[in-house]
Amino acid sequence: MLTSKERAALRAQANGLDIIFQVGKGGVTPELVKSIDEALEARELIKGTVLNNCMEDVKYVAQTASERTKSEVVQVIGKKIVLYRKSKKNKE
Prior knowledge:
The chain is about 40% helix and about 25% strand. The protein is of the alpha+beta class. It has one domain (about 5-85): YhbY-like (Translation Initiation Factor IF3, 2-Layer Sandwich), CATH 3.30.110.60. The protein has a four-stranded mixed β-sheet with strand order 1-2-4-3, sandwiched between helices. It is globular, with a radius of gyration of 12 Å. The two termini are about 20 Å apart.
């Protein structure tokens, strides 16, 4: 669980990030979860967007993606989602 200070610092870092995943009408599919998982392992902090054709709520999408990838939802603003997970390879 992130503290409010950690969350604020991650939000600040996320401002400059490019969007690297999009959730479309298929929702949070196993393929999307796999690509988010790989991106989190490589970058730790990632940003994505929920497209207009997605029938699910943005907060639901963020929560589902976070649970399936064992990551933290840093921020949800409009249709944008920011996720964070400490990389396993950086623990050494």
